[in-house]
Amino acid sequence: MAKVAFLGLGVMGFPMAGHLAAKGHDVTVYNRTFAKAEAWTQKHKGKAAKTPKEAAAGQEFVFCCVGNDDDLRSVVLGPDGAFAGGQLTVMCGGEQGPFDRAKPVADAFSKAVTLIGPPGSGQITKMMNQMCIAGIVQGLAEALNLGQRAGLDMDKVMTAISKGAAQSWQMENRWQNMIAGKFDYGFAVNWMRKDLGIAMAEGKRWSAQMPVVALVDQFYQRVQERGGGRWDTSSLIQPLQKP
């Protein structure tokens, strides 16, 4: 088993670090709010560090799960940064040797870990992933809104269409909360807009048109303007339910 530092215990990071500990790895966690790191140690076997530097000292692997570039620079390059001293799909860019070393550790919180190509390839693949999700969720939101307004039995509707080509992870895991208007969980709209912004900037580099992504990004902006920046990305239905 490996010695691992895990920096960032948010919605995704908390359980990811837990999976590493459950697989027997020696895990030291850091979170900007130390109480969150202490809470993690009460639930999982591991140690809490007060700085990224302390967490990373002597470790074989350092995982970062933070919200944006500024957060990453802080935990990696800041005065006390790391470099000063289950069910996820992981897409990586890099060289084969380092990937082969890291993969057994990443397997602890992943169902698939794939080396896409040289450095940067994993990032572009992640952008593509977020683009696909954005389009799927918007289509699902519009379909659910139509069904509700038409007075259909949505349990019957979703049982029917989920068995065909329209089926998706978003449909299976989000439709009930979407029609109920429950969004206080999951992957935040703020982070999705960040991801879509990165994707659109990369698209300009490669002259790749993204008309649907740009439109859905505007819809997410409407959700933010309604105070839903921390809502789950499935909240795209909210402006349709309450124009």
Q: What overall geometry do the principal axes of the alpha carbons give?
A: globular
Q: What helical percentage do the residues reach?
A: 40-55%
Query: How large is the radius of gyration?
Result: 20 Å
SS field, number of helical segments: 11
Q: The CATH topology of the largest domain, please?
A: N-(1-d-carboxylethyl)-l-norvaline Dehydrogenase, domain 2
CATH class of the largest domain: Mainly Alpha
Could you characterize the architecture of this molecule?
The chain has helices spanning 13-22, 34-43, 52-56, 69-77, 96-106, 121-149, 154-161, 169-180, 189-205, 211-225, 238-241; strands spanning 3-7, 26-30, 47-49, 61-64, 88-93, 110-117. The protein is α/β, with parallel strands linked by helices. The chain folds into 2 domains: 3-117, 3-Layer(aba) Sandwich (Rossmann fold), CATH 3.40.50; 121-241, Orthogonal Bundle (N-(1-d-carboxylethyl)-l-norvaline Dehydrogenase, domain 2). The strands form 2 sheets. The chain has a 4-stranded parallel β-sheet. Strands 5-6 form a two-stranded parallel ribbon. Strand 2 (26-30), helix 2 (34-43) and strand 3 form a beta-alpha-beta unit. Helix 6 crosses helix 9 (189-205) and helix 6 crosses helix 10. The longest helix is centred in the middle third of the chain and has 29 residues, at 121-149. Residues 81-85 have low confidence and may be disordered.
